UniProtKB/TrEMBL annotation, chains A, B:
GO biological process: tRNA pseudouridine synthesis
Subunit note: Homodimer.
Pfam family, one: PseudoU_synth_1
Gene giving rise to this polypeptide: truA
Protein name, entry field: tRNA pseudouridine synthase A
Amino acid sequence: MRNLLMKVSYDGTNYNGFQTQPGGNTVQDLLEDAIELLSGEKLKITASGRTDAGVHARGQVFNFYTASKIPVERWCIALNSRLSEDIVVTDAVEVPLEFHSRREAKQKTYRYTINANQFPDLFNRRYQFHHHGRLDITAMEEGLRHLIGTHDFTTFASRKSTKPSHVRTIYDAWIETDTSMCRPGTRDQGIIHTYVTGSGFLQHMVRIIMGTLMEVGEGKRTPESISVILEAKNRATAGPTAMSTGLMLWDVEYDITSFVKPDFA
Amino acid sequence: MRNLLMKVSYDGTNYNGFQTQPGGNTVQDLLEDAIELLSGEKLKITASGRTDAGVHARGQVFNFYTASKIPVERWCIALNSRLSEDIVVTDAVEVPLEFHSRREAKQKTYRYTINANQFPDLFNRRYQFHHHGRLDITAMEEGLRHLIGTHDFTTFASRKSTKPSHVRTIYDAWIETDTSMCRPGTRDQGIIHTYVTGSGFLQHMVRIIMGTLMEVGEGKRTPESISVILEAKNRATAGPTAMSTGLMLWDVEYDITSFVKPDFA
Protein backbone atom coordinates (compact mmCIF):
# COMPACT_ATOMS: atom_id res chain seq x y z
CA MET A 1 0.00 0.00 0.00
CA ARG A 2 1.24 3.49 -0.84
CA ASN A 3 0.04 6.88 0.35
CA LEU A 4 -0.12 9.33 -2.60
CA LEU A 5 -0.37 13.08 -2.12
CA MET A 6 -1.65 15.21 -4.99
CA LYS A 7 -2.29 18.83 -5.81
CA VAL A 8 -5.34 19.75 -7.88
CA SER A 9 -6.69 22.94 -9.50
CA TYR A 10 -10.34 23.31 -10.37
CA ASP A 11 -12.90 25.73 -11.70
CA GLY A 12 -15.68 25.33 -9.15
CA THR A 13 -18.36 27.01 -11.31
CA ASN A 14 -20.11 23.81 -12.35
CA TYR A 15 -19.72 21.81 -9.11
CA ASN A 16 -21.54 21.47 -5.80
CA GLY A 17 -18.30 22.14 -3.92
CA PHE A 18 -15.32 19.89 -3.29
CA GLN A 19 -16.63 17.37 -0.79
CA THR A 20 -18.92 14.44 -1.61
CA GLN A 21 -22.53 15.13 -0.66
CA PRO A 22 -25.93 13.55 -1.37
CA GLY A 23 -26.64 15.73 -4.42
CA GLY A 24 -23.48 14.46 -6.13
CA ASN A 25 -21.56 16.44 -8.79
CA THR A 26 -18.64 17.33 -6.54
CA VAL A 27 -14.94 17.61 -7.36
CA GLN A 28 -14.20 14.77 -4.92
CA ASP A 29 -16.67 12.48 -6.76
CA LEU A 30 -14.98 13.20 -10.08
CA LEU A 31 -11.49 12.60 -8.68
CA GLU A 32 -12.57 9.29 -7.11
CA ASP A 33 -14.26 8.25 -10.38
CA ALA A 34 -11.07 9.03 -12.33
CA ILE A 35 -8.95 7.03 -9.84
CA GLU A 36 -11.35 4.09 -10.17
CA LEU A 37 -11.17 4.26 -13.96
CA LEU A 38 -7.39 4.26 -13.75
CA SER A 39 -6.55 1.77 -11.01
CA GLY A 40 -9.83 -0.11 -10.61
CA GLU A 41 -9.93 0.83 -6.92
CA LYS A 42 -13.11 2.20 -5.36
CA LEU A 43 -11.58 4.42 -2.68
CA LYS A 44 -12.09 7.63 -0.72
CA ILE A 45 -9.66 10.53 -0.91
CA THR A 46 -8.88 12.86 2.02
CA ALA A 47 -8.52 16.56 1.22
CA SER A 48 -6.97 19.47 3.13
CA GLY A 49 -10.52 20.72 3.63
CA ARG A 50 -13.72 21.36 1.75
CA THR A 51 -14.56 24.27 -0.55
CA ASP A 52 -18.12 25.55 -1.08
CA ALA A 53 -20.17 25.32 -4.26
CA GLY A 54 -18.78 27.70 -6.88
CA VAL A 55 -15.45 28.23 -5.08
CA HIS A 56 -12.32 27.56 -7.14
CA ALA A 57 -8.95 26.10 -6.22
CA ARG A 58 -5.49 26.80 -7.56
CA GLY A 59 -3.85 24.39 -5.12
CA GLN A 60 -6.18 22.02 -3.26
CA VAL A 61 -4.34 19.02 -1.76
CA PHE A 62 -5.57 15.46 -1.15
CA ASN A 63 -4.13 12.04 -0.35
CA PHE A 64 -5.29 8.43 -0.64
CA TYR A 65 -4.03 4.86 -0.21
CA THR A 66 -3.53 2.75 -3.30
CA ALA A 67 -2.36 -0.78 -4.03
CA SER A 68 -1.77 0.21 -7.65
CA LYS A 69 1.70 -0.32 -9.10
CA ILE A 70 1.40 2.71 -11.43
CA PRO A 71 4.56 4.84 -10.91
CA VAL A 72 3.82 8.08 -9.08
CA GLU A 73 5.12 10.23 -11.95
CA ARG A 74 2.47 8.74 -14.29
CA TRP A 75 -0.54 9.62 -12.17
CA CYS A 76 -1.06 13.29 -13.16
CA ILE A 77 -1.30 12.72 -16.90
CA ALA A 78 -3.28 9.49 -16.43
CA LEU A 79 -5.84 11.15 -14.14
CA ASN A 80 -6.13 14.32 -16.22
CA SER A 81 -7.00 12.30 -19.32
CA ARG A 82 -9.90 10.83 -17.29
CA LEU A 83 -11.08 14.15 -15.84
CA SER A 84 -13.22 16.98 -17.18
CA GLU A 85 -11.14 19.90 -18.49
CA ASP A 86 -12.11 22.06 -15.49
CA ILE A 87 -10.18 19.83 -13.04
CA VAL A 88 -6.40 19.42 -13.43
CA VAL A 89 -4.13 17.37 -11.15
CA THR A 90 -0.77 19.16 -11.22
CA ASP A 91 1.45 17.24 -8.77
CA ALA A 92 1.70 13.77 -7.29
CA VAL A 93 4.22 12.46 -4.75
CA GLU A 94 4.46 9.45 -2.47
CA VAL A 95 4.37 10.31 1.24
CA PRO A 96 4.77 8.26 4.44
CA LEU A 97 1.74 6.13 5.28
CA GLU A 98 0.89 8.22 8.37
CA PHE A 99 0.65 11.47 6.36
CA HIS A 100 -2.86 13.05 6.43
CA SER A 101 -3.54 16.03 4.17
CA ARG A 102 -6.01 17.74 6.50
CA ARG A 103 -4.38 17.15 9.90
CA GLU A 104 -0.88 18.06 8.73
CA ALA A 105 -1.76 21.20 6.79
CA LYS A 106 0.30 23.97 8.40
CA GLN A 107 -1.38 26.90 6.72
CA LYS A 108 -3.77 27.74 3.96
CA THR A 109 -4.07 30.78 1.74
CA TYR A 110 -7.28 31.94 0.13
CA ARG A 111 -7.56 34.64 -2.50
CA TYR A 112 -10.68 36.71 -3.07
CA THR A 113 -10.87 38.75 -6.27
CA ILE A 114 -12.95 41.89 -6.71
CA ASN A 115 -13.23 43.58 -10.08
CA ALA A 116 -13.56 47.28 -9.26
CA ASN A 117 -13.59 48.42 -12.89
CA GLN A 118 -16.68 49.78 -14.62
CA PHE A 119 -17.13 46.67 -16.76
CA PRO A 120 -16.85 42.95 -16.01
CA ASP A 121 -13.54 41.41 -17.09
CA LEU A 122 -15.09 39.14 -19.67
CA PHE A 123 -12.28 36.59 -19.76
CA ASN A 124 -12.10 36.23 -15.95
CA ARG A 125 -15.81 36.60 -15.22
CA ARG A 126 -16.05 33.22 -13.48
CA TYR A 127 -13.27 34.11 -11.03
CA GLN A 128 -14.19 37.61 -9.91
CA PHE A 129 -16.88 39.44 -8.01
CA HIS A 130 -17.78 42.58 -9.95
CA HIS A 131 -18.23 45.47 -7.51
CA HIS A 132 -20.06 48.58 -8.68
CA GLY A 133 -18.97 51.91 -7.26
CA ARG A 134 -15.85 53.24 -5.64
CA LEU A 135 -13.92 51.31 -2.96
CA ASP A 136 -11.46 52.86 -0.49
CA ILE A 137 -8.70 50.27 -0.86
CA THR A 138 -6.50 51.87 1.82
CA ALA A 139 -9.34 51.57 4.34
CA MET A 140 -9.83 47.92 3.32
CA GLU A 141 -6.11 47.23 3.88
CA GLU A 142 -6.36 48.85 7.29
CA GLY A 143 -9.45 46.83 8.19
CA LEU A 144 -7.76 43.63 7.09
CA ARG A 145 -4.84 44.22 9.46
CA HIS A 146 -7.19 43.99 12.46
CA LEU A 147 -7.81 40.33 11.60
CA ILE A 148 -4.15 39.28 11.82
CA GLY A 149 -3.33 37.24 14.92
CA THR A 150 -5.09 34.59 17.00
CA HIS A 151 -8.76 35.37 17.60
CA ASP A 152 -12.14 33.76 18.16
CA PHE A 153 -13.65 34.21 14.66
CA THR A 154 -17.30 33.48 15.62
CA THR A 155 -18.27 36.86 14.07
CA PHE A 156 -16.89 35.68 10.73
CA ALA A 157 -18.25 32.12 10.77
CA SER A 158 -21.45 30.73 9.36
CA ARG A 159 -24.14 30.33 12.02
CA LYS A 160 -24.26 26.70 10.90
CA SER A 161 -20.66 26.07 11.99
CA THR A 162 -20.49 23.07 14.32
CA LYS A 163 -16.78 23.39 15.13
CA PRO A 164 -16.07 23.08 18.91
CA SER A 165 -13.69 26.06 18.76
CA HIS A 166 -13.77 29.14 16.53
CA VAL A 167 -10.26 30.19 17.48
CA ARG A 168 -8.01 30.45 14.45
CA THR A 169 -4.78 32.27 13.62
CA ILE A 170 -4.45 34.59 10.65
CA TYR A 171 -0.73 34.82 9.88
CA ASP A 172 -0.96 37.37 7.12
CA ALA A 173 -3.53 39.22 5.03
CA TRP A 174 -2.81 41.65 2.22
CA ILE A 175 -4.21 43.26 -0.91
CA GLU A 176 -2.62 43.34 -4.37
CA THR A 177 -4.22 45.60 -6.96
CA ASP A 178 -3.75 45.01 -10.67
CA THR A 179 -4.49 48.18 -12.61
CA SER A 180 -3.27 46.90 -15.98
CA MET A 181 -6.85 46.62 -17.28
CA CYS A 182 -7.91 50.11 -16.13
CA ARG A 183 -8.99 52.36 -18.94
CA PRO A 184 -7.65 55.93 -18.81
CA GLY A 185 -10.19 58.63 -18.13
CA THR A 186 -12.59 56.27 -16.36
CA ARG A 187 -13.23 55.51 -12.69
CA ASP A 188 -11.78 52.02 -13.11
CA GLN A 189 -9.96 50.98 -9.91
CA GLY A 190 -8.52 47.69 -11.09
CA ILE A 191 -8.67 44.08 -10.04
CA ILE A 192 -8.34 43.81 -6.25
CA HIS A 193 -6.92 40.50 -5.00
CA THR A 194 -7.18 39.97 -1.23
CA TYR A 195 -5.01 37.17 0.18
CA VAL A 196 -5.60 35.69 3.64
CA THR A 197 -3.19 33.12 5.10
CA GLY A 198 -4.15 31.27 8.27
CA SER A 199 -3.92 28.11 10.33
CA GLY A 200 -7.39 27.13 9.22
CA PHE A 201 -10.69 28.67 8.19
CA LEU A 202 -14.26 28.30 9.43
CA GLN A 203 -17.23 27.80 7.13
CA HIS A 204 -17.80 30.96 5.01
CA MET A 205 -15.04 32.75 6.95
CA VAL A 206 -13.22 34.36 4.01
CA ARG A 207 -16.49 35.25 2.30
CA ILE A 208 -17.87 36.96 5.45
CA ILE A 209 -14.55 38.77 5.91
CA MET A 210 -14.81 40.00 2.31
CA GLY A 211 -18.48 41.00 2.58
CA THR A 212 -17.56 43.06 5.64
CA LEU A 213 -14.39 44.46 4.09
CA MET A 214 -16.34 45.68 1.07
CA GLU A 215 -18.58 47.64 3.47
CA VAL A 216 -15.38 49.19 4.86
CA GLY A 217 -14.35 50.05 1.30
CA GLU A 218 -17.76 51.59 0.63
CA GLY A 219 -17.43 53.79 3.74
CA LYS A 220 -20.32 52.05 5.56
CA ARG A 221 -17.97 50.89 8.33
CA THR A 222 -14.64 52.16 9.67
CA PRO A 223 -11.51 49.98 9.48
CA GLU A 224 -11.38 50.01 13.31
CA SER A 225 -14.89 48.54 13.49
CA ILE A 226 -13.38 45.20 12.41
CA SER A 227 -11.74 44.92 15.84
CA VAL A 228 -14.98 45.82 17.57
CA ILE A 229 -17.10 43.22 15.77
CA LEU A 230 -14.38 40.56 16.21
CA GLU A 231 -14.66 41.13 19.97
CA ALA A 232 -18.45 40.82 19.80
CA LYS A 233 -18.23 37.15 18.67
CA ASN A 234 -21.56 37.63 16.92
CA ARG A 235 -22.21 36.86 13.25
CA ALA A 236 -24.96 39.50 13.15
CA THR A 237 -22.37 42.28 13.63
CA ALA A 238 -20.49 41.40 10.40
CA GLY A 239 -21.42 42.16 6.79
CA PRO A 240 -22.98 39.82 4.24
CA THR A 241 -21.36 36.64 2.92
CA ALA A 242 -19.62 37.67 -0.32
CA MET A 243 -20.40 35.66 -3.45
CA SER A 244 -18.44 32.43 -3.87
CA THR A 245 -17.45 33.32 -7.45
CA GLY A 246 -14.51 35.51 -6.33
CA LEU A 247 -13.02 32.93 -3.95
CA MET A 248 -10.11 30.62 -4.69
CA LEU A 249 -8.22 28.23 -2.41
CA TRP A 250 -4.80 29.53 -3.38
CA ASP A 251 -2.40 27.23 -1.57
CA VAL A 252 -2.05 24.70 1.24
CA GLU A 253 1.34 24.38 2.91
CA TYR A 254 2.95 21.46 4.73
CA ASP A 255 6.21 20.72 6.54
CA ILE A 256 7.07 18.09 3.99
CA THR A 257 9.82 19.73 1.99
CA SER A 258 12.28 16.99 2.92
CA PHE A 259 10.54 14.16 1.10
CA VAL A 260 8.74 15.78 -1.82
CA LYS A 261 10.05 17.17 -5.06
CA PRO A 262 11.02 20.83 -4.66
CA ASP A 263 8.14 22.35 -6.60
CA PHE A 264 5.39 20.78 -4.56
CA ALA A 265 5.42 22.38 -1.11
CA MET B 1 -30.01 59.99 -37.53
CA ARG B 2 -26.78 59.41 -35.62
CA ASN B 3 -23.84 57.11 -36.41
CA LEU B 4 -22.69 55.32 -33.25
CA LEU B 5 -19.33 53.58 -33.00
CA MET B 6 -18.84 50.92 -30.31
CA LYS B 7 -16.14 48.65 -29.02
CA VAL B 8 -17.08 45.15 -27.89
CA SER B 9 -15.26 42.25 -26.17
CA TYR B 10 -16.51 38.71 -26.45
CA ASP B 11 -15.73 35.13 -25.55
CA GLY B 12 -16.25 33.40 -28.88
CA THR B 13 -16.41 29.87 -27.41
CA ASN B 14 -20.17 29.52 -27.67
CA TYR B 15 -20.76 31.38 -30.94
CA ASN B 16 -20.65 30.62 -34.65
CA GLY B 17 -18.31 33.57 -35.20
CA PHE B 18 -19.03 37.28 -35.31
CA GLN B 19 -20.91 37.73 -38.56
CA THR B 20 -24.57 36.81 -39.14
CA GLN B 21 -24.94 33.55 -41.03
CA PRO B 22 -27.76 31.10 -41.81
CA GLY B 23 -27.07 28.89 -38.74
CA GLY B 24 -27.62 31.85 -36.40
CA ASN B 25 -26.04 32.15 -32.93
CA THR B 26 -23.51 34.80 -33.89
CA VAL B 27 -22.20 37.75 -31.88
CA GLN B 28 -23.65 40.12 -34.49
CA ASP B 29 -27.12 38.57 -34.05
CA LEU B 30 -26.97 39.05 -30.29
CA LEU B 31 -25.78 42.66 -30.59
CA GLU B 32 -28.58 43.46 -33.08
CA ASP B 33 -31.15 41.76 -30.82
CA ALA B 34 -29.94 43.81 -27.83
CA ILE B 35 -30.15 47.05 -29.86
CA GLU B 36 -33.70 46.16 -30.94
CA LEU B 37 -34.70 45.44 -27.33
CA LEU B 38 -33.28 48.81 -26.31
CA SER B 39 -34.29 51.19 -29.09
CA GLY B 40 -36.98 49.22 -30.90
CA GLU B 41 -35.02 49.50 -34.15
CA LYS B 42 -34.44 46.45 -36.33
CA LEU B 43 -31.11 47.38 -37.86
CA LYS B 44 -27.83 45.94 -39.18
CA ILE B 45 -24.49 46.78 -37.62
CA THR B 46 -21.23 47.08 -39.59
CA ALA B 47 -18.10 45.63 -37.97
CA SER B 48 -14.38 46.13 -38.66
CA GLY B 49 -14.38 42.57 -39.99
CA ARG B 50 -15.54 39.09 -39.16
CA THR B 51 -14.04 36.63 -36.70
CA ASP B 52 -14.37 32.85 -37.09
CA ALA B 53 -16.29 30.47 -34.85
CA GLY B 54 -14.54 30.12 -31.49
CA VAL B 55 -12.32 33.20 -31.99
CA HIS B 56 -12.44 35.81 -29.21
CA ALA B 57 -12.24 39.58 -29.27
CA ARG B 58 -10.83 42.02 -26.79
CA GLY B 59 -11.58 45.03 -29.01
CA GLN B 60 -13.88 44.39 -31.96
CA VAL B 61 -15.41 47.61 -33.36
CA PHE B 62 -18.77 48.21 -35.05
CA ASN B 63 -21.00 51.11 -36.04
CA PHE B 64 -24.67 51.60 -36.88
CA TYR B 65 -27.24 54.31 -37.63
CA THR B 66 -29.90 55.03 -35.04
CA ALA B 67 -32.83 57.42 -34.73
CA SER B 68 -32.89 56.77 -30.97
CA LYS B 69 -32.58 59.73 -28.61
CA ILE B 70 -30.76 57.69 -25.94
CA PRO B 71 -27.62 59.66 -24.97
CA VAL B 72 -24.44 57.97 -26.24
CA GLU B 73 -23.01 57.57 -22.73
CA ARG B 74 -26.01 55.44 -21.70
CA TRP B 75 -25.62 52.84 -24.45
CA CYS B 76 -22.91 50.58 -22.96
CA ILE B 77 -24.70 49.84 -19.70
CA ALA B 78 -28.07 49.58 -21.42
CA LEU B 79 -26.80 47.10 -24.02
CA ASN B 80 -24.78 45.05 -21.53
CA SER B 81 -27.85 44.51 -19.37
CA ARG B 82 -29.54 43.04 -22.48
CA LEU B 83 -26.57 40.86 -23.52
CA SER B 84 -25.27 37.48 -22.39
CA GLU B 85 -22.38 37.76 -19.91
CA ASP B 86 -19.87 36.62 -22.55
CA ILE B 87 -20.36 39.78 -24.65
CA VAL B 88 -19.51 43.20 -23.17
CA VAL B 89 -19.79 46.55 -24.96
CA THR B 90 -17.03 48.72 -23.46
CA ASP B 91 -17.15 51.99 -25.41
CA ALA B 92 -19.64 54.03 -27.40
CA VAL B 93 -19.07 57.31 -29.22
CA GLU B 94 -20.91 59.32 -31.87
CA VAL B 95 -19.00 59.63 -35.15
CA PRO B 96 -19.63 61.53 -38.41
CA LEU B 97 -22.33 59.99 -40.60
CA GLU B 98 -19.81 58.97 -43.28
CA PHE B 99 -17.69 56.92 -40.83
CA HIS B 100 -17.52 53.18 -41.69
CA SER B 101 -15.85 50.83 -39.19
CA ARG B 102 -14.48 48.42 -41.80
CA ARG B 103 -13.37 50.82 -44.54
CA GLU B 104 -11.69 53.25 -42.14
CA ALA B 105 -9.84 50.71 -40.00
CA LYS B 106 -6.15 51.68 -40.26
CA GLN B 107 -4.70 48.59 -38.65
CA LYS B 108 -5.71 45.54 -36.70
CA THR B 109 -3.85 43.51 -34.12
CA TYR B 110 -4.50 39.84 -33.42
CA ARG B 111 -3.05 37.90 -30.52
CA TYR B 112 -2.55 34.14 -30.57
CA THR B 113 -1.83 32.43 -27.24
CA ILE B 114 0.04 29.15 -26.85
CA ASN B 115 0.35 27.46 -23.48
CA ALA B 116 3.75 25.75 -23.58
CA ASN B 117 3.57 24.49 -20.01
CA GLN B 118 3.11 20.83 -19.12
CA PHE B 119 -0.47 21.32 -17.90
CA PRO B 120 -3.38 23.32 -19.28
CA ASP B 121 -3.91 26.66 -17.55
CA LEU B 122 -7.27 25.77 -16.10
CA PHE B 123 -8.54 29.31 -15.67
CA ASN B 124 -7.58 30.41 -19.19
CA ARG B 125 -8.33 27.16 -20.98
CA ARG B 126 -10.84 28.76 -23.36
CA TYR B 127 -8.29 31.31 -24.56
CA GLN B 128 -5.17 29.23 -25.18
CA PHE B 129 -3.93 26.48 -27.42
CA HIS B 130 -2.11 23.92 -25.28
CA HIS B 131 1.04 22.81 -27.08
CA HIS B 132 2.75 19.60 -25.95
CA GLY B 133 6.51 19.42 -26.24
CA ARG B 134 9.30 21.94 -26.45
CA LEU B 135 9.16 25.03 -28.70
CA ASP B 136 12.18 27.02 -29.87
CA ILE B 137 10.77 30.48 -29.18
CA THR B 138 13.81 32.29 -30.62
CA ALA B 139 13.34 30.45 -33.92
CA MET B 140 9.64 31.39 -33.89
CA GLU B 141 10.53 35.05 -33.35
CA GLU B 142 12.97 34.86 -36.26
CA GLY B 143 10.37 33.19 -38.49
CA LEU B 144 7.81 35.84 -37.58
CA ARG B 145 10.12 38.65 -38.71
CA HIS B 146 10.04 37.30 -42.29
CA LEU B 147 6.33 38.17 -42.46
CA ILE B 148 6.79 41.86 -41.70
CA GLY B 149 6.31 44.11 -44.73
CA THR B 150 4.01 44.14 -47.75
CA HIS B 151 3.57 40.71 -49.34
CA ASP B 152 1.13 38.58 -51.26
CA PHE B 153 -0.12 36.32 -48.45
CA THR B 154 -1.75 33.63 -50.62
CA THR B 155 0.37 30.99 -48.82
CA PHE B 156 -1.24 32.02 -45.54
CA ALA B 157 -4.84 32.37 -46.75
CA SER B 158 -7.66 29.85 -46.76
CA ARG B 159 -8.12 28.24 -50.17
CA LYS B 160 -11.71 29.47 -49.91
CA SER B 161 -10.63 33.11 -49.89
CA THR B 162 -12.47 35.06 -52.59
CA LYS B 163 -10.59 38.32 -52.08
CA PRO B 164 -9.42 39.89 -55.38
CA SER B 165 -5.99 40.65 -53.90
CA HIS B 166 -4.02 38.79 -51.23
CA VAL B 167 -1.54 41.62 -50.79
CA ARG B 168 -1.49 42.84 -47.20
CA THR B 169 1.00 44.71 -45.01
CA ILE B 170 2.20 43.38 -41.68
CA TYR B 171 3.47 46.39 -39.72
CA ASP B 172 4.76 44.51 -36.73
CA ALA B 173 4.79 41.03 -35.22
CA TRP B 174 6.28 40.02 -31.91
CA ILE B 175 6.19 37.45 -29.13
CA GLU B 176 5.72 38.09 -25.40
CA THR B 177 6.31 35.15 -23.06
CA ASP B 178 4.78 35.04 -19.61
CA THR B 179 6.70 32.64 -17.39
CA SER B 180 4.93 33.55 -14.15
CA MET B 181 3.00 30.26 -14.15
CA CYS B 182 6.05 28.07 -14.84
CA ARG B 183 6.78 25.54 -12.11
CA PRO B 184 10.43 25.24 -11.09
CA GLY B 185 12.13 21.97 -11.99
CA THR B 186 9.74 21.25 -14.87
CA ARG B 187 10.01 21.77 -18.62
CA ASP B 188 7.31 24.48 -18.48
CA GLN B 189 8.07 27.18 -21.07
CA GLY B 190 5.32 29.63 -20.20
CA ILE B 191 2.42 31.27 -21.96
CA ILE B 192 3.51 32.48 -25.40
CA HIS B 193 1.52 35.41 -26.79
CA THR B 194 2.15 36.19 -30.46
CA TYR B 195 0.92 39.60 -31.65
CA VAL B 196 0.52 40.45 -35.34
CA THR B 197 -0.41 43.97 -36.46
CA GLY B 198 -1.37 44.57 -40.07
CA SER B 199 -3.39 46.58 -42.55
CA GLY B 200 -5.86 43.73 -42.85
CA PHE B 201 -6.01 39.96 -42.63
CA LEU B 202 -7.20 37.23 -45.00
CA GLN B 203 -9.43 34.35 -43.94
CA HIS B 204 -7.54 32.05 -41.50
CA MET B 205 -4.37 34.11 -42.04
CA VAL B 206 -3.25 34.41 -38.42
CA ARG B 207 -4.16 30.78 -37.71
CA ILE B 208 -2.15 29.50 -40.71
CA ILE B 209 0.76 31.73 -39.69
CA MET B 210 0.61 30.22 -36.21
CA GLY B 211 0.27 26.61 -37.40
CA THR B 212 3.38 27.18 -39.52
CA LEU B 213 5.25 29.03 -36.78
CA MET B 214 4.66 26.15 -34.36
CA GLU B 215 6.34 23.86 -36.89
CA VAL B 216 9.28 26.28 -36.84
CA GLY B 217 9.26 26.08 -33.03
CA GLU B 218 9.20 22.27 -33.21
CA GLY B 219 12.23 22.26 -35.53
CA LYS B 220 10.25 20.87 -38.47
CA ARG B 221 10.94 24.01 -40.52
CA THR B 222 13.66 26.66 -40.43
CA PRO B 223 12.82 30.31 -39.70
CA GLU B 224 14.11 31.20 -43.19
CA SER B 225 11.63 28.80 -44.79
CA ILE B 226 8.90 31.33 -43.98
CA SER B 227 10.32 33.62 -46.69
CA VAL B 228 10.52 30.75 -49.15
CA ILE B 229 6.89 29.63 -48.71
CA LEU B 230 5.67 33.25 -48.78
CA GLU B 231 7.28 33.56 -52.23
CA ALA B 232 5.59 30.31 -53.34
CA LYS B 233 2.10 31.87 -53.01
CA ASN B 234 0.76 28.37 -52.39
CA ARG B 235 -1.32 27.37 -49.35
CA ALA B 236 0.01 23.80 -49.59
CA THR B 237 3.51 24.98 -48.62
CA ALA B 238 2.38 26.31 -45.22
CA GLY B 239 1.57 24.42 -42.02
CA PRO B 240 -1.86 23.52 -40.65
CA THR B 241 -4.49 26.04 -39.56
CA ALA B 242 -4.00 26.45 -35.80
CA MET B 243 -7.04 25.96 -33.55
CA SER B 244 -9.32 28.99 -33.20
CA THR B 245 -9.33 28.75 -29.39
CA GLY B 246 -6.00 30.62 -29.03
CA LEU B 247 -6.96 33.53 -31.27
CA MET B 248 -8.19 36.93 -30.16
CA LEU B 249 -8.90 40.09 -32.13
CA TRP B 250 -6.84 42.32 -29.87
CA ASP B 251 -7.44 45.80 -31.24
CA VAL B 252 -8.64 47.79 -34.24
CA GLU B 253 -7.20 51.25 -34.76
CA TYR B 254 -8.59 54.32 -36.52
CA ASP B 255 -7.52 57.86 -37.30
CA ILE B 256 -10.35 59.24 -35.22
CA THR B 257 -8.58 60.53 -32.15
CA SER B 258 -9.78 64.05 -32.81
CA PHE B 259 -13.46 63.42 -32.25
CA VAL B 260 -13.66 60.54 -29.78
CA LYS B 261 -13.03 60.39 -26.07
CA PRO B 262 -9.33 59.76 -25.38
CA ASP B 263 -9.65 56.14 -24.21
CA PHE B 264 -11.33 54.84 -27.32
CA ALA B 265 -8.81 54.93 -30.16
